[in-house]
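Morning!

As promised:
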Amino acid sequence: MNPLLRRLRAELFATRADAALSLVLISLISLAAIGCLRWVLTQAQWAVVKVNSTLFAVGRYPVEQQWRLWLLTALLVAASGATWGLIRAHPRPDRTGVLWPRNDRLAVGLLSLIALALPWALDLNLAIAGRWWGLTVLLVFCRWLAGRYGARLSPAGQRLAALVWPVLYLVGMVLISGGLGLVTVSPSEWGGLMLTLLASSFAILLCFPIGVLLALGRRSDLPLLRWGSVLYIEFIRGAPLITLLFLGQNILGFLLPGGLAPERVWRAAWVLTFFAAAYLAEAVRSGLAAVPRGQLEAARSLGLSYPKALQHVVLPQALRVALPAIVGQFISLLQDTTLLSLIGLLELLGTARTVMANPAFLGRNGEVYLTLAVLFWGCCAALGLGSRALERRLDPHAVPSAT
Amino acid sequence: MSQPSSELMIEARAVEKWYPNGFQALRGASLTVRRGEVVVIMGPSGSGKSTFIRTFNALEDFQKGSITVDGIVLSNDLRNIDAVRREVGMVFQQFNLFPHLSVLDNLTLAPVLVRKRPKAEVEQQAWALLERVGIAEQAGKYPGQLSGGQQQRVAIARALCMEPRILLFDEPTSSLDPEMVREVLEVMQNLAAEDITMVVVTHEVKFARHVAHRVVLMADGEVVEEAEPELFFTNPSHQRTRRFLDQIL
């Protein structure tokens, strides 16, 4: 018998009960898939997404300033490609630098396919489609370049290369909001996917150090620090995010030093940060608890100071253990940004609601929500994939690879 | 075997320690160790011997008495504690290697961070030390890939890489499989022949007999008996020591 058939038989039809269950499941899945496909291909009217694609991407960002966002995207794409290539060029001594499970040429192929097909599916005009294709080429080129010549980079150069990301973040802030000679674009004009990613990346970046400090504070010997951390964490975890968001709009202006949260967008971003930090602290705490006491003792007995022992011995191990929980936190943070629409911000969901309120697109809710779901899924899948690659890279017990 | 000098490396006087729950682990334990000396501490479990040597590098605090290590008085002053820990190396029962670092990085971490020595120079020294404990070929591996005996030898090399004047061993062979005990004891025996001062908590009678300058018996948080090995094992002066030896020999 054909090996494929034999395998199918062993896995799906081994016993009568198995066979019955398999048949029921197969028919259910097929029915659902056929129904979905029929709706997507024949009934759905995708004009609502095609016409509003810019709105979904960046909201009401002034058209004549949108070149700044394209520039930022290009910089991000170049940095991503270079990072990808560098990681490939500097595998850990005992394993390869592959990011994607098995083979990341597959990832490159998939990305290129999406980049090729998307402008076509969205009916974008040639100028914009051309930019997408250019970005894809840029990504693949930077990955190739860094992969080819990255191995020659000195250790000091590698440390400098890592600094590109924080610098890029600041550059991105300037490009988006203006200043330093660029026309100011007020946060009330930001929107769409850009606002979603901006708010969530701001919160992810800032909640991480705050969360780690809170987790350390909760395990501290100093009672004031310990009880302060416990109080903060338990208060935040006991309140619904939407309450905190409304609260933040009203009182954050008094709590933070003047100028840090002048705008509704910034206030919301800070609330997201403080909210996520409390949950992150608990994830980090579970990681800290998993590191045996002997690790700190060994580091201290070698003469490392407490901060150095934390930095080089305890935290690397604790964060590796906590990594899946931390990324899970980031993923729910990304999804929690939809609540910003309830305080009147036009992030993805807010934008979607304004589009659906337009009489021209009455009744096109299904198409809009499906698009939203796919966009969010894409962002979360990217986070999840990145976290799994990082986990494998950091795992000291991983089987050394032969290549 | 090198002969100890008269210079005092560790001087512990009437050390008492209570845990917060009221249990008293040390009840006036005293010990002096001279430079180059190898002292073995034996005793039944729960006698406070591990706690005692852990006070020598301030991994445990104490409430009464005084401890002077290499001329530094141990107090609550943090600078003193850091200074002492640079001079005192410790080898643990559970090895406590850093699992996220390669064997070589386990050795070089502290000298580079604490002594601020150039990495290349420390790496050379680390290679030499790994050679000496017989595992240079494992330098690129991670601790999880080594056997228990190999891990403990790496731990000894890691402590040596800080060039300590005193090495403390806290039951270094107790969690090893029997066939790996010898390789670790051999490394320790070779060390004993050098200038380094060693305080070893162990149940290995043969090691105590042949390598130690002095053997100490602890019971109930006190030092009960202190004698040269031959005398300790053949003609101890205390009843408590005889009872202990009857149980282990």
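The longest strand of chain B covers residues 8-18.

Hope this helps with the figure draft.
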